[in-house]
């Protein structure tokens, strides 16, 4: 990326030099070539002596000769040349007084264009940037007020400042960057130009914009000018963003980086596993982890961006900041000295920076500032990476590495400036709401765009659209990160559910659809897997119809499979998918079956006369548990449920609608295995151990099952297997960044000494 930027800088420089050479050639041709040409081809156009009145009368009354016409035009050319030479001198004087683009008046436009082109091409962006910024602000913020810088207060000695002028004239001192941009380059009483916003003089006249800050608007598309050539001292990284369809759809509040979307997606997987680990076999609970809308949207965005041709890969030391020209911009906050955010969009941008920083390092913030960022609603238990302190002094005492977040006032600014200036705090980074003179201060408009910045490297960040979050979304993401962290294991398991089965068999040849495990669809006369040859969306369509054996509405179907599309696009997508599925089925069965879906009464379902689904047998066994009236009938039901379960429901398909169904089925099977083990503990301990081992494969992170297995191994005298079971538990829990509880370790250590063969595990 740096090499590309260097090459583009060389090309721009060569282009500027080429423009300077062309303008110089034109200027030289006019200044030197025109008089030489007139002298060589026309000569002296005026008479050698003063003509008499008789000669003049004769010349004027006679028809115009060609020589007279040529001499007259030559005189006109000499007069225009003299005026041009004079204008060149005046424009050169303008440039010498201050490097800027000269005034382009109607008469002076040729000289101004030539001189301005030469000067700006040779001197580069210094002149163009100042003039361009001033023109842009003048057009967007009409000037209606002139404010005079006041003399120092004779009592307190306090001097006037750009902040005080903005606060006095605009009612908001944080708008001082607008005042500075509007007056940049103006002559000051000391004879120099205004280039430092911290240096103003009493009596100086400052132009004040009359337009108020823009009102809040919903998220518009990013439309900004091409970024200027990056300065070498600003550590910035730009990478291609995913295409627009990978962004969270249908939301106007959450606008985050691809890195944060990936972190949220990974945290959701871990949080779900941790939530399911705490399930008590036999409890009958079917609640799954609640997924907030913003989490769901960011997970979809991450999955859609995984196949992007240009994945976003910011440097390890750079924090994703925003987007410019559909490219993600990342900034090394430590290298630039920290960020100060002001303006109506500062708080939303700060939330996004805080949540993004939590995925990379720890964040320290006072309780008061956290409440102001997240609103009045209760924050709840924060993730461990978020350090909440009680005062700014404690904030300044944080050990690196950390990101410090604070609203700046006079006292907090003094504490933090001293802290961040110390050599030992190099890994402390500041993100502040307020003006931050030691780093970069950004003025952020209501739509999240950086409208201006403090002088220095931060000026090239202007025009970037910052990532932002509202308070509800920020709270939901913090709650997700907390759910993804280790929690204590439950104490013990209670009685298991009692489930019976009523499996209906049929000998009619049908398509065989396997949903338990990796989905597969086969025709009995062929080993060819139809599901492996169709598109992933068609496989998901078949799975959705099979899971909803009683049928589903069109609305539920399109909302599950095409949540990001409009109603028209979703309807077309469903019709196309059904047509492709019919073609694939017809081709695979040789025309024996042309369609496996039944559509009627506004509902869609698979035809049970043409398709046999293993999940349907398991579902019937689970839902028919109440029909078993005898102990033996219940045992048969438990055994049937356990035997029918051959793997997770539709393994490999990651869709939000499928997760709750998949988890409910898994828990039903675990309950059946636990209940069967409970019933067989006194008559067949070997089969009980086999059932517990099988249940462990269904739920490899559930510590309660491992405890029961160790108790049974101790009961059977297999003491050498107990440490292996504990080691297996430790390895499985390490996959989710957890470890066995003290209860499990104590059990493994004491069972060899206190085992008794007549004791069996409590399920």
UniProtKB/TrEMBL annotation:
Record InterPro entries: AfsR-DnrI-RedD_regulator, BTAD, OmpR/PhoB-type_DNA-bd, Sig_transdc_resp-reg_C-effctor, TPR-like_helical_dom_sf, WH-like_DNA-bd_sf
Region (Disordered): 182-250
Biased composition (Pro residues): 210-219
Record-annotated membrane-spanning stretches: 20-38, 68-90, 111-132, 252-271
Keywords of this entry: DNA-binding, Membrane, Transmembrane, Transmembrane helix
Domain OmpR/PhoB-type per the UniProt entry, residue ranges: 529-606
Keyword set includes Transmembrane helix: yes
Highest taxon listed in the record's lineage: Bacteria
Residue ranges of domain Bacterial transcriptional activator in the record: 613-747
Pfam family, one: BTAD
Family: Belongs to the AfsR/DnrI/RedD regulatory family.
Protein name: BTAD domain-containing putative transcriptional regulator
Natural source organism: Lentzea sokolovensis
